[in-house]
Amino acid sequence: MASRAPVATGRLLVGLRKWYYGMCAFNKLGLMRDDTVYEDSDVKEALRRLPEDHYNDRMFRVKRALDLSMKQQILPKDQWTKYEEDVRYLTPYLEEVIRERKEREEWMKK
């Protein structure tokens, strides 16, 4: 009986994540989660390190979302970004940039 509780809890958490993802509404503009990250210096450096095709895809999504926002429209439902399709494409680069910055700060303290 105790072994079933984590599975049910896991399914419940996934359900809540999907619900929250849909409520955030950026997916209705065709954006991915990493497209909505605030661009501080770390994020700008991570964007600079992105492969060109990923960067171009991001720029297309952002420009399309801005255009839709100006027109006060959303994409047709079949073009919305689905929870399962949302890939954290920027996160690995961002984690590397943050790790390098912290390492550099520690080095400068010495």
Summarize the structure.
Helix content is 63%, strand content 0%. It is mainly alpha-helical and 110 residues long.
How would you describe this protein?
With 110 residues, the protein is an all-alpha fold. Helices cover 63% and strands 0% of the residues. It has 4 helices and no strands. The chain has helices spanning 4-24, 41-49, 52-71, 91-109. Helix 2 crosses helix 4. It is globular, with a radius of gyration of 18 Å. The chain starts with a helix and ends with a helix. The model has no long low-confidence stretch (mean pLDDT 91).
> Would you report the number of β strands?
0
Mean pLDDT, rounded to whole units? 91
Oligomer: single chain
**What are the segments in which pLDDT stays under 50 over at least 5 consecutive residues?**
none
User: Helical content, roughly?
Assistant: 55-70%
The whole-angstrom Rg is: 18 Å
Number of helices: 4
Encode the helix/strand succession as letters: HHHH
SS-based structural class?
mainly alpha
* First-residue to last-residue Cα separation: 54 Å
* Biggest sheet statistics: none
Morphology: globular
Q: Determine the strand fraction and express it as a percent band.
A: under 5%
